[in-house]
């Protein structure tokens, strides 16, 4: 009659547990990081509502040009320039001209912010903005830690806000650009 396990059986069992743990840990860690970035993005929404409140208040008071007021208000959020900062789409490609920025700034919250305003509004759309919630720390990918807004005369609106949920889901996959994650995570979408 045999009692207990042999050393070989215990060793095999430990190796199996170790292999499973090594396979699951990176996925779990990535999900934790993504959840943290998504939570940061949700918190940014309130901050930017306040930014636009300041813009609209100042616009009413001194009737200055939108671009001047916008830059003035955002300058309060900025503490430094950043160089050698590059972002990619979720699928690994580089952004097209609409989503490329030249002047990246580090905010008081150590995030990275860049925007560009159009010379003249298109259907009240004044420009676009990107916001990297964890600053220059990687991965610097749209939909992972980089999110964006369309800039209107009276509000910021996350990219893809008016697109269908199925389109946002598809764009938020590893084959998409990640632009729609800006709204997808705000409405409760999950990450892959």
How would you characterize the overall build of this protein?
- The chain is an alpha+beta fold and 192 residues long.
- It has one domain.
- It is built from 4 helices and 6 strands; from the N terminus they run ααββββββαα.
- The protein has helices spanning 7-62, 66-75, 165-171, 181-184, and strands spanning 78-81, 105-107, 112-122, 125-132, 146-152, 156-158.
- The protein has a 6-stranded antiparallel beta sheet.
- Helix 1 packs across helix 2.
Spell out the key features of this protein:
single chain, 192 residues, alpha+beta, six-stranded antiparallel sheet, 6 strands, 40% helix, elongated
N to C succession of SSEs? HHEEEEEEHH
DSSP strand content:
15-25%
Helix/strand-derived category reads: alpha+beta
- Biggest sheet architecture: 6 strands, antiparallel
Helix amount, in percent? 40-55%
Average pLDDT over all residues:
84
* Helical segment count: 4
Roughly how many Å is the radius of gyration? Answer: 22 Å
Please state how the strands of the largest beta sheet are arranged side by side.
1-2-3-4-5-6
């Amino acid at each position: 009659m045999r009692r207990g396990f042999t050393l070989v059986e215990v060793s095999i069992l430990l190796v199996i547990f170790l292999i499973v743990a090594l396979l699951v840990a990176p996925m779990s860690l990535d999900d934790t990081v993504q959840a943290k970035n998504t939570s940061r993005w949700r918190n940014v929404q309130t901050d930017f509502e306040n930014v636009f409140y300041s813009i609209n208040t100042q616009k009413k008071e001194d009737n200055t040009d939108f671009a001047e007021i916008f830059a003035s208000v955002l300058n309060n959020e900025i503490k430094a320039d950043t160089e050698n900062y590059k972002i990619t789409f979720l699928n690994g490609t580089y952004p097209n001209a609409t989503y490329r920025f030249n002047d990246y700034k580090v905010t008081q919250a150590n995030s990275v912010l860049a925007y560009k305003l159009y010379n003249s509004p298109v259907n009240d759309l004044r420009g676009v903005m990107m916001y990297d919630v964890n600053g220059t720390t990687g991965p610097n990918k749209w939909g992972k830690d980089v999110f964006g807004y369309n800039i209107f005369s009276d509000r910021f609106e996350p990219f893809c806000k008016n697109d269908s949920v199925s389109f946002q889901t598809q764009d938020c996959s590893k084959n998409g650009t990640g632009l729609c994650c800006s709204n997808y995570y705000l409405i409760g979408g999950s990450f892959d």
